[in-house]
Design a protein that fits this description.
Layout: H1 4-10, E1 21-22, E2 49-50, E3 63-69, E4 78-83, E5 88-92, E6 102-103, E7 116-118, E8 127-129, E9 131-132, E10 139-141, E11 149-155, E12 158-162, E13 168-172, E14 176-179, H2 195-201, E15 256-258
Antiparallel strand pairs: 1-2, 3-4, 3-6, 4-5, 7-14, 8-11, 8-14, 9-10, 11-12, 12-13, 13-15
Length: 266
């Protein structure tokens, strides 16, 4: 695992590109009527949103990585790419991407970390990230730090992908994907250290249900540290939680060849 000092040296010390940032109003977990729909969210440090080109729409134009930057809105790092026509764009950085590297998004190209091409043209066994699910809709899968999917097979107009969960899924071969692994894989080893860091990120304190009153949570009531007293743990609204399948029948089920593996068993 890389030390914190080495990681900091990788990143470029510069302000974010002004034209590629936008200010977004904080909602603190509330909807349009002011009701809390996401619990435990609150005031956080102000930050600008970086406009990321997940689809890398500039096709067949060579680009050069001019900076690697930290993004407070996501776990992965961003690469600032300057294209031959002079335009700059943010993209998700691959693990092996360095300043000065040349990358391209094309239908078929060199199998090189950071390049982007159609799934049908990528060899079996290659690691890919920022994967499209629908043609032209931009990357949707494998966008968080350190994630990647593996190409298992090419089957007519579909490509079979193995996801980190163990699920095997069919994706249209015409969809684009980036070669390699998402940057900042050491994120999983990060230690928060103190409650104040989470408050700066916008996370308010979380209270155990068993510490509440019976009127506030199904786990509430009792004296001292009592068990929940139920067959299954429940959400504050009485719905069974942990280990219960919540996915309803969807038309996309036909693209799933193998369900994700339950790693808690055996």
């Amino acid at each position: 695992m890389k030390s914190v000092s080495k990681i900091k040296r990788i990143l470029t010390k510069k302000e974010p590109e002004k034209k590629l940032t936008v200010s977004i109003r904080e909602k603190a977990g509330r909807n349009f009527s002011g009701r809390i729909t996401i619990r435990h969210r609150g005031k956080r440090v102000k930050r600008l949103y970086r406009i990321v080109d997940f689809g890398q729409e500039k096709r067949e134009i060579l680009g050069e990585v001019v900076a690697l930057e930290y993004d407070p809105n996501r776990t992965a790092y961003l690469a600032l790419v300057k294209y031959q026509d002079g335009e700059k764009r943010y993209i998700l950085s691959a693990t092996d991407l360095k300043i000065g590297d040349k990358i391209i998004c094309s239908e078929k190209g060199e199998i090189k970390s950071g390049n982007r091409m159609k799934l049908k043209n990528i060899p079996v066994g290659t690691q890919v990230f920022n994967i499209e699910l629908e043609v032209g809709m931009g990357g949707k899968l494998m966008r968080s730090a350190g994630t990647f999917a593996k190409i298992l097979a090419q089957d007519e107009k579909f490509t079979n992908l193995e996801l980190p969960s163990g699920e095997v899924r069919k994706v249209y071969g015409e969809c684009f994907a980036s070669i390699g692994q998402v940057s900042h894989p050491e994120k999983r080893f990060e230690i928060i250290g103190k409650a104040g860091r989470n408050r700066l990120k916008g996370w308010r304190p979380t209270v155990r249900g068993s510490a509440m009153n019976p009127c506030d949570h199904p786990h509430g009531g009792g004296g001292g540290k009592t068990p929940i007293g139920l067959k299954n743990p429940k959400t504050p609204w009485g719905k069974i939680a942990r280990g219960v399948k919540t996915r309803k029948k969807k038309w996309t089920d036909r693209f799933i060849l193998q369900r994700r593996q339950n790693k808690n068993k055996g």
